[in-house]
């Protein structure tokens, strides 16, 4: 891939000239219009792109290869942060996005009760799994489409957009009918057929980090989604495997500033799976916002001891409400805002 950096004064005609040249030569084009100048990404086998010829074209300032293995996901390619609306909120802007809800949708009343409590506490987006990736085939697998229907009902009542996991390509169309955001779970981060399907869907995606994945591998997975023309991708740090066993996972706080440097995509922190114990969720939520995360996703359950999954790491609604108050203070301290 090459990036054509246009002069700040380049005209519309000059920009279209580059796009036409690239398309005539069989390349895909990705436009990124910044506040100062336009960057035109030319996607394809760049061994055959004639850099000198491009550099001589009208309105071009410079032509630069993208050296990183991830291209569309890289900040080189798109210096400005990616931002997009979900409901009344803008992910990737100066506001911190709060997603909350139970690990699993367990019943109609459970999801509605939890949604109302989360909304009241200040959450923006409702989470809840209907298709659950469980480590054991004997554990609760989720309510399936019935769970999606209850989520849609909870959205109807509270006005909160919903995020839910999709585990297989064949179910992407069904989950898209209900969900505002598709979640790709840690165990499926490198499920390329699934990445292809969610990329094609053009639905917003939250891509969780695989539990033993490098940041570079994770960004390559985001690249799969982006390469299908889906630009609305968020990256979610949810903790990684280390030698430490006291917590379920080790939340990699480093990933937040590293991703912010390498990529323009919004970064969401999951302190619930990142720690596995509700007592630590508050600290890691606050640390994530201070470190530059664009949002958080937190498990909340009205009666964690009765939860079908992840009760140990779920906050009760009262604690979650207090945490939202603290999040506001931290956000303000780092020049962000919780609305
Ligand atoms: C979840 O969000 O409940 C979940 C299964 O997360 P992860 O894929 O990060 O384990
Ligand atoms: Mn969970």
List keywords for this structure.
single chain; 339 residues; alpha/beta; Alpha-Beta Plaits; TIM Barrel; 2 domains; 8-stranded parallel barrel; 4-stranded antiparallel β-sheet; 35% helix; elongated; binds phosphoenolpyruvate; binds manganese (II) ion
What would your notes on this structure say?
Helix content is 35%, strand content 18%. The chain is α/β, with parallel strands linked by helices and 339 residues long. It folds into two domains: 2-65, Phospho-2-dehydro-3-deoxyheptonate aldolase, domain 1 (Alpha-Beta Plaits), CATH 3.30.70.1140; 84-333, TIM Barrel, CATH 3.20.20.70. It has an eight-stranded parallel barrel with strand order 7-8-9-10-11-12-13-14, surrounded by seven helices. Helix 3 (108-121) runs parallel beside helix 4 (145-158). The longest helix is centred in the C-terminal third of the chain and has 17 residues, at 317-333. The two termini are 39 Å apart. The relative contact order is 0.12. The model has no long low-confidence stretch (mean pLDDT 96). The chain binds phosphoenolpyruvate (PEP) and manganese (II) ion. The site of phosphoenolpyruvate (PEP) has 9 residues, from loops.
